[in-house]
Amino acid sequence: MPRVDPEEYVELVLRCVEQVPRGRVTTYGAVAEAVGVLVGGGGPRQVGSVMAAYGGPVPWWRVVRADGSLPPSHQGEARQAYLEEATPLRPSGNVDLRRAFWQPQALDPPDG
Questions:
Q1: Residues in contact with 90: Cβ distance below 8 Å, sequence separation at least 6, in sequence order
Q2: ∠ Cα 65 12 77 (to 5°)
Q3: Nearest to residue 40, comparing CAs of 77, 14, 4, 72?
Q4: What pTM did the predictor assign?
Q5: Could you give the CA distance from residue 50 to residue 28 in angstroms, rounded to a whole number?
Q6: Beta strands 63-64; 26-27: pairing state
Q7: 3-state SS of the chain?
């Protein structure tokens, strides 16, 4: 199984997040699964670390926790994006994963 360096891992995570369609979301775990096929592991926490450090330029609000929530510090800005994109929400304000979930496919290896 090919291995990638940390910089390539960041690129893979961000590339995966860029593919999430408007009005849909995926989870940290689903991104980890799609990227993990290439890197031989990694989990939701690693994806969260990448998103925290490098996720500003991508549609970060489209990656949520397994319960459809975001960290409280991001909820206001994310909610505005959800409303603009017509993302299905539950009465709690969390994303309705049953209706909005998008499953990322395993990514192709980085060029190199």
A1: 68, 96
A2: 40
A3: 4
A4: 0.88
A5: 10
A6: parallel
A7: CCCCCHHHHHHHHHHHHHCCCCCCEEEHHHHHHHHHHHHCCCCHHHHHHHHHHHCCCCCHHHEECCCCCCCHHHHHHHHHHHHHHCCCECCCCCECHHHHECCCCCCCCCCC
Tokens of 19: 């593919």
pLDDT confidence bin for 1, thresholds 50/70/90: very low
Q: How confident is the model at residue 92 (pLDDT cuts 50, 70, 90)?
A: confident
Number of CB atoms found within 10 A of residue 97's CB: 19
